[in-house]
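W.,

You were right to be curious about this one. When I first looked at the sequence I had no strong expectations either way, so I just let the prediction run and decided to look at it fresh. Below is the sequence, 338 residues in total, followed by the output.
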Amino acid sequence: MTGIKDVASALDMSTATVSRALRGLPGVSDSTRERVQQAAQQLGYVPSPSAAGLASGQTRTVAVVVPFVTRWFFASVVQGAEEVLREGGYDLLLYNLAGSSEARHRVFEGGRLTKRVDAVLVLSLQPSAVELTRLRALDRPVTFVGADVPGWATVRIDDERTARTAIEHLVGLGHRRIAYVGGPGVLDFTAPNAREAGYRGALESAGLPHDASLEVDGAFTLAGGIEAGRRLLDRPDRPTAIFAASDEMAIGVLRAARELQLRVPEDVSVVGIDDHELAGFFDLTTVSQPVLEQGRLAAQQVLDAIAASTTAAGWHPEQVILPTTLLERGSTGAPPPA
């Protein structure tokens, strides 16, 4: 097996010079670095990650903690983060909680997040005081995606404002009886409470009454959206419009309307949040959020923090709020005649 000494011998260089060239450290000319890289490739030399970590104090690995890796939103954020990390020469270590509180405890409080990673990304979880203490003890850069955590680096949208945008759109079309499909989510997932608050706040601003019976748990899944849609649309006093706090639930509501032989938007209007990859296929009106971009920005934040740790300039956590955009499609229109 080819080692770094073989590369150094072939080039008649010291192993220290070859090591610095391969690790991208200063003090090596561009021409020397190119010669070393070419020789390493020709000889089939593959650097040992553990050895590089011992030498540099870095593992070139970033941990990503995600509530559900199989859900479209989380998978898309992870994809965006992985693209940036890969370009920066970093690997991604995924901790999929799969909706389990026990798994969350193991990761944050059971020692799973150790100093074998250079940084941590936490997706859509509102951290407890104990979790923040554990993360702070790592002494590693941390960025939260989709959560408002004062004093820490964050990348998110304004979920409450986004929900208001959806309701204001429906109110502007003339709807006065608007239902909400959301739910508490799991693991203290951050979006549900803020989007519910946006729904209620927009109703109040429009002078519309709040009817608790029009708020139904859709579990933030397609199946949950179907069941919620059935409950809302099969009642004699059904709403003229339904706002779902995610596109997956909104698509489920569309399915329920079809089962009940209701026309969209003639009999009921439906609007979601996300701009899911299937939203256009279902002609779903939605409030679009830049999902991939959230992952990319979060990954860039931790890479910048890692780079700054080697300089005197230091790094200051940045809180980024990205804009959302209403996309009007065919699932919303004026309410049916009274």
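Here's what jumped out at me. The chain has twelve helices and twelve strands. And, maybe more interesting for your project: Residues 4-47 form a domain with the 434 Repressor (Amino-terminal Domain) fold (CATH 1.10.260.40).

Coffee later to discuss?

I.
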